[in-house]
Amino acid sequence: MARKNSETIILGVILLAVFGLMWALNGSQFVQFENLQSMAFQLPELGILSLAMMITMLTSGINLSIIASANLSAITAALILTNFVTPDANGIGPTAIAACAVAAGLLVSAIIGLLNGFLIAVVEVSPILATLGTMILVKGASIVLTRGYTLSGLPEPILFIGNGSVVGIPMPMIIFILCAAFMAVVLNHTPLGNYIYMIGSNPIACFFAGVNNTVVLFCTYLISGVYSGIAAMIMMSRFNSAKADYGESYLLMTVLASVLGGVSAAGGFGRVSGLVLALVILQLVSSGLNLLNVNPFLTIAIWGMILILVMVVNYLSARYQEAHPR
Amino acid sequence: MRRLWRYQETYVALVIVILSCAITLLNPNFLTLENLFDLLKSYTFLGILSIGVLFVLISGGIDISFTAVATVAVYTTMYVTLQHGGNMATVLLMSAAIGSSLGLINAMVIYFFNIPSIITTIATLNIYYGLLTVFSGGTWLYNMPEWFRRFAETNVISLVNPNGVPYGLSVIPLIWFAVILAAWVILRYTMLGRGIYALGGNLASAQRTGFNILALNLFVYSFMGLLAGIAGVVEVMLAQRVATNSMVGKELDVIAAVVLGGASLTGGVGTLWGTLLGVALVGIIGNGLTLMRISSYWYNVFIGLVIIVSVGVSAYRRKLQRRRKISIEVE
C-alpha cells in the first residue's frame, strides 16, 4: 500500500512540476481557456487507447493490436457512412445511419477482442505473439478494404463525436471520463476486476482459487477491443477520415503512458488514477512544448526520458524503502 | 525422425517447401537462381536484424529500439562520410560502433536500474529517434559517394539468364552470410553462447553457475546494436539514400519473423536455423504473392494468418503436453 501511494505521490509531484515549468515558460497563454480546451480535445485518443492497453497489462499481457483494430473499426464505420449517407437519401435519417456505423465499428473491434481472447485464453498463445499476429492480420484486412487509400468526407452527425462540446466540455473528454470511470469501477468494485489483478499476480494461484481464468481473459481482451473501437470513433471523427495506418505511433505511447502511470509490466499492479495522471503529464509536456514551437520529435524524446526517469526514481525509492524498513 | 516433429522449425520448413511447390507450379520463375539471388539481396536487412533479435530473445529480453539505433547509426555515419570522405570499411565500422554503443546504453539502463527490457527499449526508441529527427531536421541525405554506389552494385557471381539479361549474386548478402557465420560460432562453440542460453533459461542458475550476468547483458544488447548499425548500412546500400523515417516502425515485423522461427519470448529457446527459416518464410510469402500476381495489398493478411496459425499450433501442442504431464503427476 505504501508503495502504491508513493508512486501516486511521485506522479503528482512530477505533474505539478511540469505544470509549473510550462506555465513559467509560456506565461499566461498556457492557462488560457483555449489552450486547456485544446488539451482536452487531444488527450482522449491516447487516453482511451492507453486504457485499452492498461487492462491487458494488468493481467500480465499486452495488446499490440489496439491501433490496428481501431483503424479497422474506423474504416468499417467510414465505409458505411460514405456509402449510405448521401445528400438525397434523407429518408432514413443520417443520424440513424451514423448510429449504425458506430455500432458496426464497435462490433468489429469487439470481434477482434474476442479473437485475441480466444488465442490467449483457449489456445494459450503468449499475449504478445497472439496480438502481434492479429495486429498484422487486422492491418492487412484494413489495407485490403481501403486499397491503401484514405476514406474521407464523413457526414455531419458523426463529426460531433470528435469536435463537438457540451457546455464547454469537449465531447471526446466526456467520452474519456466515462470510459475511465467505467474502467475504474470494473477494476476496483467488481469481482472481475479482482480476478484481473489476481491473474496478473499469479495465474496458477488464481486458477486454484476457483476463478475461471478463461472467462476473465476473454472479458479483458473484449473490453480492450471495445475501448480501441471507442477511440477509433473519436479519431475518425476528429480527422474526418479513416485509413489503414493512422496513429501507429500511438502503440508504443500507450505502453509508455501505462508504465508511467504505475502499471507494472509484469502484471498485477496499476490503477486508473495513475494512468490518468500520467496522461495529463504527457499532454502538458506536449502542449507546453508545442506552444513554445519546439519540434514535436523533441517532445517524444522527452516523453521517453520522463519514462526512464520515473522508472529510475521508482527503483531507487524501492531500494531505499528496502534498506530503511519502517 | 519422431524427434523432429517436436520442433517448430520442422513445421516452418514444411510450410516453406509446400509454399515453394505451389508458387513454382503457378510461376516457374520462382525456382530460378535469379529470383533466389534477388530474394537474398532484398531480405539481407531483415535477416541481419533478425539475428540480433534472436540473441536478445534467447537471453530472455526484448529489444524494440533497434530500428531507431540503425537509423541513428547509419545517418551519423553517412553524414560524417559525406563531409570528410571515407571508404566501405570505415562506413561499416563506424556504423557498427555507434550502433553497439547505443546498445550498451540500453543494456546499462536495463541492468543497473532493473527496468524491464521492453520498457527501456520503448523509451530509448523514442529518445534516439526523436533526437535524431530534431538534430537532422528530418532531412534525407542523397548523393551517396561514387565508391559507395559501386560497392552496392558489385556482383560476386555474374551470370546471364536465357533472355540474355545479366544478373548475379550481389555482395550485400555476403555481409548477411558473415553475420550468420559469426552468430553460429558464438551460439554453438563459445562459453558466451552457452551463457546467453543460460541467462534466458534461468537467471538464478546462470548466476550461480558463475556466468557474469552484467557482461552477458552488455554483450547481447551491444551485439544487437552492432547488427542494427550494419543493417542500417545495408538499407542505405539498397536505397542509395538515408531516410530518417524508413526503418522506424518495422521493429515488430522483424520480431515476428524471429518468433515464427521458434524463438520463445520467455527466453532460453531459439535457434539460428529457425530464425533463418522464419525470415525465409516471410520473404517467400512476399515474393510468392508478386509472382502469383496477387495484389500486394494481401501481404499483411497472409503474414498475419501464418503467424497466428503457427504460434497457435505450437502453443496448443505445448498445452496438450503440459496436460499430459499434469495427469501423470496426479496418478
Query: What is the CA-based Rg of chain A, rounded?
Result: 20 Å
The biggest beta sheet of chain B, please?
2 strands, antiparallel
* Protein chain pair with the most extensive contact, residues per chain: A-B, 46 and 46 residues
In round numbers, the mean pLDDT of chain A is 86
Parts with pLDDT < 50 across at least 5 consecutive residues of chain B: none
Q: Outline the low-pLDDT stretches of chain A.
A: none
Oligomer: heterodimer
Roughly how many Å apart are the termini of chain B? 30 Å
What does this structure look like?
The complex is a heterodimer of chains A (326) and B (331). Chain A has 326 residues and is mostly helical. Chain A contains 13 helices and four strands. In chain A, the strands form two sheets. A two-stranded antiparallel sheet of chain A has the order 1-4. In chain A, helix 8 crosses helix 10 (213-239) and helix 11 (250-260) runs parallel beside helix 13. The radius of gyration of chain A is 20 Å and the shape is globular. The two termini of chain A are 13 Å apart. In chain A, 49% of the residues are buried. The model of chain A has no long low-confidence stretch (mean pLDDT 86). Chain B is mostly helical and 331 residues long. Chain B starts with 7 loop residues before the first helix and ends with a helix. Chain B contains 14 helices and two strands. In chain B, a hairpin with a 5-residue loop joins strand 1 (155-160) and strand 2 (166-170). Chain B has one domain: Orthogonal Bundle (ABC transporter involved in vitamin B12 uptake, BtuC). Chain B has a two-stranded antiparallel sheet. At the A-B interface, helix 5, helix 11 and helix 13 of A face helix 6, helix 12 and helix 14 of B.
